[in-house]
Amino acid sequence: MTTLAATAPVTPALQSRLPQVGTTIFTVMSALAARHGAVNLGQGFPDFDCDPALPAAVATAMAQGHNQYPPMAGVPALRQALAAKMQALYGLTVNPDTEVTVTAGATQAILTAILAVVHPGDEVIVLEPCYDSYVPNIELAGGQVVRVPLTPGTFRPDFAAIAAAITPRTRALLVNSPHNPSGMCWTAAEMQQLDALLASTDVLLISDEVYEHMVFDGQRHESAARYPGLAARAFIVSSFGKTYHVTGWKVGTVVAPAALTAEFRKVHQFNVFTVNTPVQHALAAYMADPAPYLNLPAFYGAKRDRFRAGLGGTRFRMLPGEGTYFQCVGIEDLAVPERDLADGAFCEWLTTEVGVAAIPLSAFYGNGFDQRVIRFCFAKRDDTLDEALRRLARL
Questions:
Q1: Tell me, what's the pLDDT at 8?
Q2: Which of 63, 75, 100, 159 is 20 to 30 A from 187, comparing alpha carbons?
Q3: What is the pLDDT of residue 5?
Q4: SS3 for 187?
């Protein structure tokens, strides 16, 4: 007779799909900041609210009955508004029915693009330092990550290194401009050079442009959409969360040629299917006025200037801040004993002892390359920035 053993249930063992992945540095530093009452300039999100007209538009959409599944590719009015924006800003004509898809944030968009086109053994080039989702996305698709460093110090693309990394197995190249974490923005000349480099290849481009409206000092955002040769091979990714200060809404977009979009949607329909209906209707209505995103360079440019001016009295070494809402600084000249710590340990000390959280740049490299550089986020209220600057003044 068989009896049940009086033992605790055992969870079956498994082999991790991402054995090298742990808790992200952003979660770690935000938790550390909360425990120590630090001003959190680490994780990249605003501490101010969005335009009240946006949640009001969501409430209106709900009251109007927009509460069921929308079309898989996105609400038609929103896709039409996005197509009109691409034409007005970048001169790219896109079909909203076959070339524009609404996604559950830019992170989902990038993962879906990679899963749609990368097969096991395909190589995908990433330019380091890079956003932390890129490499795990490639690994989940069975692709081989090929890391090419941006030029240390300036973070400009090294085209000789990129060209050397391209092989017959290269399926895609991931680029990000304006660049997280450095704030570097690709120039027109660099985009033209990229266009020429890829012209004779079958390499696809995944262009992460979530900070497209945060480019300062009169510079123009050089979207892949501006260059026909690049647009013809690109998934162009953007984010309403970044643009409209609603990162928690997790709504992004992908613009791509019809053939690429068809493959993208095959994956999209099974990993998300579709995106929050009333929010899409609200965004479509809100996009009728381009002023909110056209005014972002002045809005965030002023915050950058305020933050940089405040750091001017410290020994932080300021790196260029051409775009995004991040500012990178060198820590090698600080007159504190902790200046000789690795950048990660320095950020922990800065959080616990000075009361300001930042992110070590080494976290954006696969090999943990430490340049003695850390990243601050200045997408904060002026009083938040001023308090952080008051605490940092001792350095």
A1: 84
A2: 100
A3: 56
A4: coil
Q: Are 39 and 387 within 8 A, CB to CB?
A: yes
Give CA 284 to chain center in angstroms. Answer: 22
Q: How many domains does the chain have?
A: 2
Instruction: Give yes or no for a contact between 188 and 90, defined as CB atoms under 8 angstroms apart.
Output: no
224 close to 205: Cβ distance less than 8 angstroms: yes
**Which run of H or E residues covers position 291?**
helix 291-294
Structure tokens at 205: 């481009």
Domain edge (last residue) among 288, 321, 337: 288
Final residue before a domain boundary, out of 254, 269, 288: 288
d(CA 42, CA 125): 27
Question: Do 162 and 150 form a contact (C-beta atoms < 8 A)?
Answer: no
What 3-state DSSP class applies to 35? helix
Instruction: Centre a 10 Å sphere on the Cβ of residue 152 and count the other Cβ atoms it contains.
Output: 12
| pLDDT average per 10 residues of sequence, the chain (395 residues) | 68 90 86 95 94 98 98 98 98 98 98 98 98 96 98 96 98 98 98 98 98 97 98 98 96 98 98 97 98 97 98 94 97 80 92 96 95 97 98 93
Tell me, what amino acid is at 324?
T
Give the predicted TM-score (pTM) of the model: 0.95
Contact 374/361 with Cβ under 8 angstroms?
A: yes
Q: Which domain holds residue 246?
A: 53-288
